[in-house]
Write a structure and sequence with these properties.
single chain, about 170 residues, mainly alpha, two-stranded antiparallel sheet
């Protein structure tokens, strides 16, 4: 079983209810956006108008890690993280109050959606048992979107097979 299938099947065990999956489809991107905004300050100047933010570093490292798990899903996540870093940089130029309100607000609303989803699920979030699931969550969202679009069906079947074998 591939690392991708192993990680997604373990995560999916905590996300069987359609309401929970739906809240994650919105909540996880909101959390990532909130993190992107908050990590876009401070900017470290490299001179000549070039600057690096903590979010840029996080996006590059996470993008590489996602690509190592799966090239297709990793490419989507790397692109999304680049978009989040870009948007975070734009918001970071706003007033401190607006920057904090957008960053913290997105983060809190995203986590609220996660917990509402787990209320419907009737089960605790996966990260309570395994912190690495915090990294797998965005991968799960991309995979679920791909499956909804009819893409990567062999991966979907492998995940379902792994879940059946675990039961």
């Amino acid at each position: 079983m591939s690392r991708l299938v192993r990680q997604l099947s373990a995560y999916a065990e905590y996300h069987r209810n359609g309401h929970n999956v739906a809240t994650h489809m919105v909540g996880i991107p909101l959390i990532l956006f909130g993190i992107g905004v908050l990590l876009s300050r401070p900017a470290i100047s490299l001179g000549e108008g070039l600057a690096v933010t903590p979010m840029m570093i996080v996006a590059v490292v996470a993008g590489i890690l996602y690509l190592r798990i799966d090239v297709g899903f990793g490419a989507v996540l790397a692109a999304f993280l680049a978009l989040v870093a870009w948007a975070g940089n734009a918001v970071a130029l706003w007033s401190t109050g607006a920057w904090l309100a957008i960053g913290l607000g997105s983060f809190v609303v995203g986590w609220t959606l996660q917990f509402v989803g787990h209320y419907f699920e009737g089960r605790k979030p996966a990260f309570v048992d395994d912190l690495s699931s915090l990294f797998v969550g965005p991968l799960f969202v991309v995979a679920e979107l791909a499956f909804l679009l009819g893409l990567r069906q062999p991966v979907r079947r492998a995940i379902e097979g792994a879940q059946s074998a675990a039961r």
